[in-house]
């Protein structure tokens, strides 16, 4: 029998961005150690969106699966404030059984946020206390919550284009996290005094410029996951002593930030490292207290499989979900 787990079911489980951090960290470690497979996602473009297929396998967990994302018509990224349809499929690699079909929106948000937290854990100073954040949307909420779980953050400066949303976001997150979250009047103010700078937008043009980085920082570019999207300009890459991505082959397809920088001779792919290799200890890191480091994130299918597996385990233990017979 296959377990169908809906978004309503997911809300009943002990899952959050913070709960996802050790799951995602372990998954990257498996990738760095060579026990996970993550081929680049395939996207079929349409006039009004795309269909995306992302398979992966976690051999140590005897699990494999894929995420199917139908982002067409009114999907996110086509018309704002609407939702596409993402579904995760989980298989047992020993038996071939389809264990679960899981609606992917919430666990996808948790995964995205947890990736940034793992990057911050390994690539930022242990005492990092200030964040500069571009965006005041749903993804930005998760980013901030997750990074605060791994670093002693005390203040956050936020910029987004619309002032009312920006101020509401700051008030809400300040109350939720018990720290000083305040709006920036201009985008160039965001990196000021920041140990970690996060871009979490859907922008197709840079919103963070290297000239604004006047001190060492970890830059987490978490929003540009298409070849035509860019959140950081070339000077950000030029300033970096280290550039890290989720996975290099996928970045060659999806990372607009890195594709632009490579095309303009700012960096070569052999200078880009993978987060799994960092966690596995195969990358020599600069002094994170004095270096500018860039992490480009676009999400990996291995993380989707790991999150789906954990969702399935929790749902089975709690008797949540609907069993369906697919013959």
Characterise the protein shown here.
The protein is built from ten helices and 16 strands. The strands form two sheets. Strands 1, 2, 3, 4, 5, 6, 7 and 16 form an eight-stranded mixed beta sheet that branches. The chain has an eight-stranded parallel beta sheet with strand order 10-9-8-11-12-15-13-14. The chain is globular and about 60 Å long. It starts with a strand and ends with a strand. The model is unreliable at 77-83 (pLDDT under 50). α2 (17-33) packs across α3 (105-123). It has two domains: 2-108 and 302-324, 2-Layer Sandwich (ornithine cyclodeaminase, domain 1); 116-299, NAD(P)-binding Rossmann-like Domain (Rossmann fold), CATH 3.40.50.720. It has helices spanning 7-10, 17-33, 105-123, 138-150, 163-177, 234-239, 248-254, 256-263, 275-279, 301-318; strands at 2-5, 36-37, 42-46, 49-58, 63-72, 85-92, 98-103, 130-134, 155-159, 180-183, 196-199, 218-221, 242-245, 272-274, 293-296, 322-324.
Order of helices and strands: EHHEEEEEEHEHEHEEEHEHHEHEHE
The level of helicity is 25-40%
CATH superfamily of the largest domain: NAD(P)-binding Rossmann-like Domain
Total number of beta strands: 16
Summarize the model shown:
This protein is of the alpha/beta class and 327 residues long.
């Amino acid at each position: 029998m296959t377990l169908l787990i809906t978004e309503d079911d997911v809300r009943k489980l002990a899952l959050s961005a913070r709960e996802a951090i050790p799951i995602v960290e372990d998954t990257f470690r498996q990738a760095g150690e060579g026990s996970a497979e993550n081929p680049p996602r395939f996207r079929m473009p349409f006039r009004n969106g795309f269909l995306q297929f992302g398979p992966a396998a976690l051999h140590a967990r005897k699990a494999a699966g894929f995420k199917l994302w139908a982002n067409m018509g009114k999907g996110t990224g086509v018309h704002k404030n609407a939702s596409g349809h993402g579904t995760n499929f989980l298989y047992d690699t020993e038996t071939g059984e389809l264990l679960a079909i899981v609606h992917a929106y919430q666990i996808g948000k948790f995964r995205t946020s947890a990736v940034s937290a793992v990057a911050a854990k390994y690539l930022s100073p242990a005492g990092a206390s200030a964040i500069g954040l571009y965006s005041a949307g749903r993804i930005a909420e998760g980013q901030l919550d997750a990074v605060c779980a791994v670093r002693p953050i005390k203040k956050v400066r936020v910029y987004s284009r619309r002032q009312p949303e920006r101020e509401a976001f700051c008030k809400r997150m300040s109350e939720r996290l018990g720290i000083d979250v305040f709006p920036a009047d201009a985008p160039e103010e965001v990196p000021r005094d920041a140990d970690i700078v996060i871009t979490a937008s859907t922008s197709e043009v840079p919103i963070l410029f290297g000239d604004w980085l006047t001190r060492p920082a970890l830059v987490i570019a978490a929003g540009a996951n298409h070849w035509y999207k860019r959140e950081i300009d070339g000077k950000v890459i030029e300033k970096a002593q280290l550039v890290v991505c989720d996975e290099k082959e996928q970045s060659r397809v999806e990372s607009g930030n890195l594709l632009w920088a490579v095309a303009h001779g700012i960096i070569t792919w052999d200078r880009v490292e993978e987060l799994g290799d960092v966690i596995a200890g195969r990358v020599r890191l600069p002094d994170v207290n004095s270096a500018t480091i860039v992490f480009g994130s676009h999400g990996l299918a291995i993380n989707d499989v790991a999150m789906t597996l954990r969702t399935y385990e929790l749902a089975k233990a709690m008797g949540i979900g609907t069993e369906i017979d697919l013959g």
